[in-house]
Amino acid sequence: MWREHDLALKAQELEQRLAAVSKKEEETSALLQQAKEREARDIFQQLEEHFTCSLCYDIMASPFSLNAAGQCGHTFCAMCILKWSFSRLHRLCGCWHESVDCPICRSLVVMTPEKPPRLDFTFPFVPNRTASAICDSWVEKLACALSETKKGRGHKKSRVRVDTPSDLPHWREGGAARKEWLRKRRHVNLEGKTLMSSLYSNWSRLTPENFAAMKDDLGV
C-alpha cells in the first residue's frame, strides 16, 4: 500500500515537472515570437523611412539617384524618376527648356544639352546599387521574419503586445504587398532599368525627336 502511495506521489511530482517544462517552453516560444515580430517591425520601419520612393510611395524597386548639381542624392524607382523627368520635356520641340528639379528638395538636376553630342556627366540619373541591394536583402529578411511569427499549435498568445503596422503581414511570403513589389521590380522597373540603360548608352547622340518619342512611350 505504501509502495502504491509512493508511486502516486512520484507520478504527481512528474506531472508537475512536465507541466513546468511545458510552461517554460511556451514562455520561450512567446519570447522568440516577440523577437521575430520586433525584427520584422524594425526592418519594415527602416524600409519605409529610408527606402520609400517619394513618387509612388512604395518600397523602391530598381533605385536610381538624381545627378543633381547640389548633389542631393535623392533616390527613386527607375520608372518613377524617368516619368517625372520626361513629364517636364516639351513634346513639340523635344527639349527641356529649364532644369528639372528634384521632387523632394528641388535641387536642380544637371541641365540636359538640347543638341548632341552630349557629355556623359550631363546624364541626369545614377544607378543606386547600394540601395537596390539593401531593398532586395531586407524585403527577403522581412518575409523570413514574418514566416517565423506564426503561432505554433498549442502555444498561448503572448501577454506582451508588440505594436505592428497593419500592412506589415502583407509582406510575408505570398502576401499582397510582397507580390506587388516583386511584380514591380521584375516587370515595371525592369522596363525602367532597361530604358535607363538604353538612354545612357545613346545619350551622346539622342535627338530631340528621340526624346519626344520616349515621352510618348512613357505616357507622360
TrEMBL record:
Swiss-Prot/TrEMBL keywords: Coiled coil, Metal-binding, Zinc, Zinc-finger
The RING-type domain, residue ranges: 53-106
Keyword Metal-binding: yes
GO molecular function: zinc ion binding
Coiled-coil intervals, chain numbering: 4-38
Domain of life, source organism: Eukaryota
Gene3D superfamilies: Zinc/RING finger domain, C3HC4 (zinc finger) (3.30.40.10)
Name assigned to this protein: RING-type domain-containing protein
Organism expressing this protein natively: Armillaria novae-zelandiae
